[in-house]
Amino acid sequence: MNHEKKIVLTKDGSYTLRIDALKESYHSLHGALTESEFIYLNHGLHFWQENNQGKRCRILEIGYGTGLISYLSYLEAQKSQTGMDYTAIEPYPLTSEESELLNYDNLFEISKNQLSHKDFSKLLWEKSLAILPEFNLLKKKILFEHFKSTISFDLIFFDAFGAHVQPDLWGTEWMRKSYNLLRSGGVWVSFCAKGSVRRSLQEVGFEVERLEGPPGKREMLRAIKP
Fold first, then answer.
1. Do 130 and 140 form a contact (C-beta atoms < 8 A)?
2. Structural domains of the chain, ranges and CATH numbers in brackets
3. CA dist., res. 226 & res. 217, Å (int)
4. Are 32 and 10 a contacting pair, CB within 8 Å?
């Protein structure tokens, strides 16, 4: 996907990238950092942790994008001393130059024993990396359609481009694949609130919740595998 990307300042002071040819941004223009924290940490990771205290969490992120959600999870693992095995998939990784344009390191106070977002973004792909005792990272350059796993996950961050850009990726087939990739009690969470996606999640067996969305978005979805 070699579309031209431009840097955009969002309303919370953090940057995102926008592809005008697709009429799509990597994050909400109401706040890239706010959206990532609200949906994936607060209503995803923290929700799972509250119901699985003390357990190590296996996370699958579908749509690594700018790496912001992965990086926030890394910081959270170090802060909370909670173990995470994090797999992120992305068929079209950003270049180092594109990633540095986002200037995410200005958003965080990084201690000397923490990786900056810049350094985090330079970590190797296709290699399992024990960054911390609490955080293991594997980034894979692959389409979700082709992704296979011998392990089951506790949490899926479904952060692909919206359905108007990738309609097939939000269909029942891929909700079923998500379901099959999760352990019993596993959680699927996404910015998406489309009725067709909610119905597909329910059709494959998820228990689905419509939650209040982040600033600028009325609703979001969270689904649990019984």
1. no
2. 36-224 (3.40.50.150)
3. 27
4. yes
Check: CB of residue 117 under 8 Å from CB of residue 108: yes
CA–CA separation, 215 and 130 (whole Å): 34
User: Rg of the Cα trace of the chain?
Assistant: 16
| Strand 15-19 to 24-25 pairing | antiparallel
- CA distance to 30, 44, 144, 156, per residue, from 211 (Å): 18, 12, 25, 16
pLDDT digits (tens, 9 = 90+) for 128-169: 999 999 999 999 999 999 999 999 999 999 999 988 888 889
User: Bridge partners of 137?
Assistant: 86, 129
Dist CA 156 CA 223 (whole Å): 10
Give the whole-angstrom CA distance, residue 141 versus residue 58: 19
Query: Which residues, in sequence order, are bridge partners of residue 9?
Result: 15
Statement: the pTM of the whole predicted model exceeds 0.90: yes
The Cα–Cα gap between 46 and 109 comes to 21
Q: In whole angstroms, what is the distance from residue 3 CA to residue 80 CA?
A: 38
Give the CA count within 13 Å in the CB-facing half-sphere of 192: 28
Mark out the alpha helices in the chain (DSSP H runs): 32-36, 46-51, 68-80, 96-101, 117-121, 172-181, 195-203
Count the neighbouring beta carbons within 10 Å of the beta carbon of residue 86: 24
All residues at 6 or more sequence positions from 87 whose CB lies less than 8 Å from its CB, including other chains: 58, 59, 60, 61, 138, 139, 140, 149, 153
